Structures are given as C-alpha cells and as structure tokens.
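Ticket #4471: structure output looks truncated?

Reporter: J.K.
Steps to reproduce: submitted the chain below (164 residues) through the standard prediction queue, then opened the result file.
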Amino acid sequence: MGDAAREVLTWDRFGEAARDLARQVVDSGYRPDVVLSITRGGLLPAGAIAYALDHKNIHIINVEFYTGVDQRLPQPIFLPPLPSTNYLDDRTVLIIDDVADTGETLRMVRDFCDEHASESRTAVLYEKPRSVIACDYVWKQTDEWIAFPWSSLPPLTTPTRLDN
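Returned output as attached by the reporter:
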C-alpha cells in the first residue's frame, strides 16, 4: 500500500464503533427480528452489535466480491449455503458489514432480504463516498483504505477452497 492514506481501526476503537452503531439502532427505534452478518467482514461487528442489542437471532450470508487489495470480481456472488428464507419471511432484518466500499455487496444482500423480509436496514462501521447505497447506520465516513484489526496481518495458512 505504500504511503497511501489509511484509516486504522484498533480493537479498542472497534469496540467503541460497534457500541455506537448499536446505540444508533436503538435510538432510531428499529427493533430487528434478525441480525444478518455478511461474512467475513461483518462477523465481528455483527457479534458485537448483537451483544449490545441483547439479540440472539443471528444469521450469516456469505458473499465473495473482493479477492485482494483493490481486486474484485465483476460483481458480488453469493456463496453457499444461503440462509433459509423462512428466517427472513415477514421479519425485520438488520444487515451488518464492516464497510460499504462500492456498496454492491450490501445492495445485493439488501435486495435478497427485501424479497422476503418486511423491512431491512443496513449498518456498517465505514461507508465510502462511492457506495451505491446509503446505509441506515454508519459509524464513520472515509475515502481511505481501512486497516481492520482482524485482517491487517497475513493469514497463517494458505487459503482453502470450497470447490469440492
């Protein structure tokens, strides 16, 4: 990344950010029936926010878009298994991810939820100006590359593929 401007999220700031997002949800009066995490980046924020909301109905949806730093597929794709739509039917859903970069992943997941849920809202730690959707709950706006505490260091193993 060289000398490019970076937004560095520490574990301490992550705790503050997740708590602030949960407070935004509570203050808005929105009471989701389902918390839906977009993996992998949304897993930790979703867990922290669900604890702050005292919410246990958490589901995940796996989407692949980014394949490396500033490298992505032409469009996001769902990876199996998709959550059963029974969990979404006529319910309110809070979709959580770490960042709305292009916003394409969040838009795809929101559109999927909107086919089943009575209402869906989005919450992210960071939203970039180029995002194609405006998230309902945002901790911080930035145009910088974000270094998240859970993905700043290289993996300890080689990637596994789900091609079997």
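Triage note (M.O.): checked the attachment and the full token line is present. The chain has one domain: 6-147.
Status: closed, working as intended.
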